[in-house]
Design brief:
The chain is of the alpha+beta class. It contains four helices and 13 strands. It has helices spanning about 1-20, 185-190, 200-205, 210-220; strands at about 35, 40-45, 45-50, 75-80, 95-100, 110-115, 120-125, 130-135, 140-145, 150-155, 160-165, 170-175, 185. The strands form three sheets. Strands 4-5-12-7-10 form a five-stranded antiparallel beta sheet, with no helix packed on it. Strands 9-8-11-6-13 form a five-stranded antiparallel beta sheet. It has a three-stranded antiparallel beta sheet with strand order 1-3-2, with no helix packed on it. The longest helix is centred in the N-terminal third of the chain and has 21 residues, at about 1-20. It is found in: Secreted, Extracellular space, Apoplast.
């Protein structure tokens, strides 16, 4: 009996250690300022690091998130990011931020997913209808109407959206659990891929006439990021 208990404990410990090793390791230095010049850099988490002695306050700083984004586009929204591309010091820290502006009467941040991050969003102006859909086979929709001060969480990898149902501009800020969360806008990826996906594939997948698929593929799919 003791042998069986030891074996079970050993297996559980092995599984636990495997799960731990699957996550990103913690940084081994105070900071890693991302740079594009590889001459004097060390490659860490997808970016080359500046020599810490050469870091400045500007590497930790980004102005301008008080400036509204231009929502005069097909979807009526604009995402202004503050990730490792804009703030090099975010490299290895596992966090980033976005400002999202929505036009009145239907400004939409279209259904999309972040493959590497959970998102927590707070509304500061306006009224938003938000939601996300769980994975197969449930495909369950969680949705809520948000007002200023309300917070909503979109789990990592889940398809989600925000839609302005009010008559005024709306503004939200969202934090993401990655310095480089990535974004896949569903319609853009499916109907605007380069090269295009075979129309037969999409016609069968969406149960649509092939001519409708070709019409959708011929459209310009706006990227609000």
């Amino acid at each position: 009996m003791k042998g069986v208990q030891f074996l079970v404990a050993f297996v559980l410990l092995a599984l636990a250690s495997k799960l731990v090793s699957a996550s990103d390791p913690g940084p081994l230095q105070d900071f890693c300022v991302a740079i594009n010049d590889t001459k004097d850099g060390v490659f860490v988490n997808g970016k080359f690091c500046k020599d810490p002695k050469l870091a400045t306050a500007e590497d930790f700083f980004l102005p301008g998130l008080n400036i509204p984004g231009n929502t005069s586009n097909q979807v009526g929204s604009m995402v202004t990011p503050a990730n490792v591309q804009q703030i090099p010091r975010l490299n290895t820290l596992g966090i980033s931020l976005v400002r999202i502006d929505y036009a009145p009467y239907g400004g939409l941040n279209p259904p999309h997913t972040h493959p590497r991050a959970t998102e927590i969003l707070v509304v500061v102006e306006g009224t938003l209808s938000v939601g996300f859909v769980t994975s197969n086979t449930d495909n369950r929709l969680f949705t809520k109407v948000l007002y200023p001060g309300d917070v909503f969480v979109f789990p990592e990898g889940m398809i989600h959206f925000q839609f302005n149902i009010g008559s005024t501009n709306a503004v939200a800020f969202a934090a993401l659990s990655s310095q480089n969360p990535g974004v896949i806008t569903i319609a853009n990826a499916v109907f605007g891929s380069d090269p295009a996906i075979n129309p037969d594939v999409l016609a069968n997948a969406f149960q649509l006439d092939q001519n409708i698929v070709k019409q959708l593929q011929s459209r310009f799919w706006w990227d609000n990021n």
